[in-house]
Recover the amino acids of this structure.
């Protein structure tokens, strides 16, 4: 969790000014996390974790480049000031995916973007579209790891990356079409530990020999873990040790290929998760048998991680009237949606649990911590609910960086036809 203190008055003011629920990102926390990983040659932000334009612009100002996994993310990166172009300098935007759609191909060609290939078919599709470029190859090494089965991105059951046995085929197809594979990327899942990381590093070295002297860049991918539970706050990953494992691998590869190789890291949630707060309001307090429910005006349409992964987020309560909140009791926190799964205090598998929380009143704020990654980015309009406002807390000031969606915006692309 973030060590940066934000006064309760900021959350109360935000709810009054921008309505609730709303998102708050703490700039100081983002800057601190970026500094930690800048031991790597290149830090490439996996913007799918949090793609707000102001957050992307902040990353650019901090010297971070970006990964884009869709045409929309390419457009966001360009709008935030990142530039296309493949040359001697580090590519500011790399398109990473397992497929091309028409929009992505067009943007890659128009802006001369670097591409991180996730399937053999993508190489020929680039060539057929008249694109000749240097390629990075995302490799599935045959194994994976992650904090959830839904975040495991390696192994035979993963759709991601080129299967390790197909690297030679990729090299041949690229050369046949006048392109060279100059980079290797390997990401096997979020939350990988050092035992699995050592396996990944060894696999990277073994696979690099198939690329040979054309290799310029290796990417450690993302997956640096974040301690979401307050009981784990002292178990923060040793970024320096993480880097040293990869740097030693880079040195082995450099000896093999005979020249220097750039080492990239591609964090998403590590840079932004702890910066984020989802601020909601308690709208009902219910007794269901022996259970007390706090029902808030945020649902899995806002923060889907607990329903999707059984993810844990610290919860705090801010009294609307400034009263002390010393007394606690077990409570279940749920949202307004018409699904039983719209519960924030649940574990993987959908098991609903209670949380020891302050005794609250209707109108008090209930704050979900560490929501900067895969929070707003995975929000939806299910139940025709409006997307919440996003704000940035910077130098003591709270600034609006995305307006709360309006009903007009919700309906603007729909048409009623004559039946």
């Amino acid at each position: 969790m973030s060590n940066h203190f934000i006064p309760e008055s900021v959350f109360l003011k935000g709810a009054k000014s921008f309505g609730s629920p709303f998102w708050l990102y703490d700039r100081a926390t983002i800057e601190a996390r970026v500094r930690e990983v800048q031991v790597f040659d290149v830090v490439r932000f996996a913007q799918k974790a949090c793609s707000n334009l102001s957050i992307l612009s902040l990353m650019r100002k901090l010297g971070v480049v970006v990964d884009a996994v869709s045409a929309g993310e390419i457009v966001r990166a360009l709008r935030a000031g990142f530039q296309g172009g493949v040359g001697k300098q580090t590519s500011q935007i790399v398109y990473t995916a397992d497929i091309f759609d028409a929009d992505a191909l067009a943007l890659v060609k128009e802006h001369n973007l670097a591409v991180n290939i996730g399937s053999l078919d993508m190489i020929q599709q680039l060539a057929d579209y008249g694109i000749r470029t240097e390629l990075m190859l995302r490799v599935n090494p045959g194994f994976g790891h992650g904090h959830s089965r839904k975040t495991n991105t390696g192994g035979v059951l993963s759709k991601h990356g080129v299967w390790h046995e197909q690297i030679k085929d990729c090299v041949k197809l690229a050369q046949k079409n006048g392109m060279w594979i100059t980079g290797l990327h390997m990401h096997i899942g979020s939350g990988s530990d050092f035992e699995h990381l050592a396996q990944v590093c060894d696999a990277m070295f073994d696979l690099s020999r198939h690329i040979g002297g054309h290799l310029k860049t290796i990417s450690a991918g993302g997956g640096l873990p974040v301690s979401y539970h307050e009981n784990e706050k002292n178990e923060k990953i040793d970024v320096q040790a993480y880097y040293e494992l990869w740097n030693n691998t880079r040195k082995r590869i450099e000896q093999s290929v005979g020249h220097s190789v750039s080492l990239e890291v591609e964090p998403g949630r590590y840079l932004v998760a702890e910066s984020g707060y989802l601020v909601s309001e308690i709208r009902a307090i219910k007794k269901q048998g022996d259970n007390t429910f706090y029902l808030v005006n945020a649902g899995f349409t806002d923060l889907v991680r607990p329903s999707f992964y059984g993810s844990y987020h610290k919860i705090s309560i801010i009294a609307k009237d400034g009263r002390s909140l010393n007394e606690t009791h077990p409570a279940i926190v749920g949202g307004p949606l018409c699904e039983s799964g719209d519960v924030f205090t649940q574990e993987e598998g959908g098991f609903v649990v209670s949380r020891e929380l302050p005794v609250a009143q209707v109108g008090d704020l209930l704050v979900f911590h560490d929501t900067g990654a895969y929070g707003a980015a995975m929000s939806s309009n299910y139940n025709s609910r409006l997307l919440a406002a996003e704000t940035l807390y910077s130098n003591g000031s709270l600034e609006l960086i995305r307006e709360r969606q309006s009903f007009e915006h919700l309906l603007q692309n729909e048409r009623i036809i004559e039946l």
